[in-house]
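Reopening this ticket.

The earlier resolution said the output was attached, but the attachment link was broken on my side. Pasting everything inline this time so it's all in one place.
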Amino acid sequence: MSAGFKHFFRPLVARIKLWTVSRFPRYVGVFYRLFWKPRNAIEWEIHQKSKGQQSFTFLQIGANDGRINDPIFPFIFRDHWKGHRFEPLEVPFNQLSALHKRTPWVVPVKALLGTKSGTAPLYCLAFSSKRWATGLSSLSREQLEAQIASGY
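Inline output:
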């Protein structure tokens, strides 16, 4: 019963969160200012640097959906960080764009960055559009295969 309950409500809660963030970004920022606390060392370090800044500009490469396990998500809304979020894969980019529909201070960019101008193959897992799979992509097929072999 408990597993079925979680299986049903977890996606529903995720959709409600995404809907709220994409439609009321300023209220989400107020929520984060009042109630959010850092959960790990990375969030704590970013929190310390961000809270004293008047403005902050960022460039995030490999933003994925921009929300799940994203270390800068709270700061974009709480502290109104301005910047660009790059994501080359179609499904996560669409989620990222929906997330920032009403946040003009953040620009989602459907592109990848490399050492040369032009096009290049992007290797990714094609059998799943789940968050864990979309976060596993590379310009190097060997690197992706090594990550899979290591149990990532």
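Reporter confirms the inline version is readable. The chain has a mean pLDDT of 84. Residues 67 and 141 are 26 Å apart (CA to CA).
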